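Quick entry, no commentary yet.
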Amino acid sequence: MSVRLPFALRCASVAALLTAPLVLAPAAGAAPKAGSALPGDIVVTAPGGDYVSVLTKGDPAAHRELPGARPVVRDLDGDGRKDLAVQRDNEDGGGVAVYWGTGSGYAAKPTLVSGATLDSGLTAGDFDGDGHVDLIAAGPEGPGDVRLTVAYGPLTRAGAPARTAKLNTKETFAPDEIVSGDFNGDGRSDVVTEHSFEEAGHPSQLWTGSAKGLGTTSRELAIAGAMAAGDVDGDGVDDLVIRAVPDGLVEELDFDHGTVQVLYGSETGPGKPVSTITQNTKGVPGVNEDGDAFGASLAVGDVDGDGCADVAVGVPGEALRRGGKNLDDAGSVVLLKGSWKGLTGEGATAVTQDSKGVPGVSEAGDEFGSAVSLRDIAANGRTSLVVGAPGEDTDSKDSGAVWVLPKGATSGAWAVNPGDLGRTGNEEARFGAGFGR
């Protein structure tokens, strides 16, 4: 049964409920311990699957660096502690390694997930609605169609899933992206996979959750160049936010101004795109320019606490101007406000490194906004905006950096780069190319 909220309880009305005296944050002065598996952890990735860094606000010296990519932070064994799963490089044998949460951090050595081929696109959800976290990823590419593998939870401490299943995508290559969300309001996670082949985008595929798990057949959705999920209109059902692909050609994405669309959830799942937003939309800062790549990265989360999720839109190709010179690919992030009307340009804001309160200055090639995340960094129930700029030059060229903006505001913003973490040899490290999920 759908849990779509009555109109009167959506967004602003929900915000009133959120102000009730329910204590979600730690007691005053009880900061999350460095390295702990708490909401305050930020997991940052570098391209190529070289490593992930686990950071805790205010204590970068206590960070931990682990080999792998595509990090997922969830309670995978049902013990109440969040665990960290990462995809291993093929040179290390591939598959997924789990660092179990200990209450004071993560275990020193990982456990490999057994009995399931989880090679790319690692994503988590509760696909059968049993209260346990499940994992999904694409299997290895090879002759024939690529299959998705589902490892249903809970995992044992030996890494064995409760059961596994395989889904046939009927695609030659692994999905470009996999996201999960409850798109029909039945209390179970569904999955959308994003596909392309060479220069052409292919329709995304919706896999619906059920009491038995994900269905073995999919339904086609719009072609997408990036995806994120969340409830932007506050009706209790997740919506799918995508970057539209111009003329269906993914090779044009780097040269396109960028368009963001919303496929709203319903009892039958996401439909056709309804809301369409560009930088020419009323209220949205900036203007459409070729190469802006508006929507190259997307994240969904409720920044202002009104019960409607907001959308962070990365614009890494945004050219800024200073002193009569163009700063090509300096980058920006636009925060679009969710509302009971859905996603619009009303109240939208933009941030760059030149914004007051944001550390650093915008420079050509920074690509600020290449990665975005909306999450509870301070572990206080408030969503913060996290931004990656892999082209940032700190101690060396393209070493990269990450910014955290509490509640999406520039006041109190802070930044970290690989040098802050004691890492050397950072040329072209491109730290901040992605974040955990």
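second:
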Amino acid sequence: MFKTGIADNTSDQFDPAIYGNKVVWTDNRNGGYDIYMQNLSTKVQTRITTGETAPDHAIYDNRIVYRNFSGEHHDMVNIYMYDLSTKKETQIITSRKGIYNPAIYGDRIVWEDSRNDDGTGNTDIYMYDLSTKQETRITPSYEGGDNNPYQSNPSIYGDKIVWEDWRNGNADIYMYDLSTNKETQITTNKSEQRSPVIYGNTIVWQDNRNGNADIYMFTLASAEVPTPDGNETDDGNGTSNGTGNGTQVPDNNSDNGPGNGTGNGTQVPDNNSDNGTSNGTGNGTQVPDNNSDNGAGNGTGNGTQVPDNCSAKLMPLDNMQALKEYVECTYECHENTKIGLASLLDTSMCYCENGEDEKAVSMLNSFIHLAEKMKECQQVSADEADYMVREAKKIIDQIEAN
């Protein structure tokens, strides 16, 4: 396994997507946001757009869909499709309202659309069929009430479209089958399930039922879906009943490869089984992935990789020391924030060593509060803050379990 730079000039490149040997991303090397593509076989890069493109795109086969802006005041939002085989750009939709998160599979393009918003924040899922040139509204009309009407973040595979739906007052996952014209509620848990992706008969999503963000999976083909609490089954039609709503994807993998942090940003852990390398591009810090790792962690360039040694198997003091080392290695600026966070951990460690667990937990709660406030003030990135809060909560659980 090897890693290689695709777009590594000094400007920002982000939001990558891949299909086969084609990688697309948003690029601001020209001063605005453009879509670029690289063919991994030929190593040739192609500039796809030259206008006011929004960082929102997807690729399927030879087709790339994306948003851009038009109008004298850039007040029109459009979805375009670019066909790599014909080098032709096609406008799919234009609107003065919000259009977000396009996705494509075959001839079908789906997106999140706020054309029906009457001030309640309503967004719906729409689809356009390139073969029939017909647009279809996928989600039902909003009938008012107290619940949030958002339907967002669509994903499509074959005849099935999944999305995040707030009609029940919290985020659930819904699916629509174009072959049967049937809508199915996939999750019913009262916590938030968000950002679904579908491939084949498998749906994955972010799930907050455990107090933190986990990844859960649902297999449409299975007659019964195992869950952590064992309370959920599938009724055969893809409808989820009970309090489980999916199988949690484990993140306790063994990683035998080195992790290298290089470049201009914060690398987010991928929590996958990985025998290769893990690279963060940029001047930032790689966030540890909480896995057992038998390889070396190397920070190159101006980045700092922090060892992922905050294992649940370690004692609270060991985990506090590991978290303190992470804090001290994280920042190249905001020195006062670093000192404040490290000081709280030092104090908590002293209390823990003296058997004053209640005071140790109090200091950890203060650490969590400070990390969350620094996140709000944008002095700490969301990924870094969320990691620190998550690890501090794990340590609190360890202390209280003793």
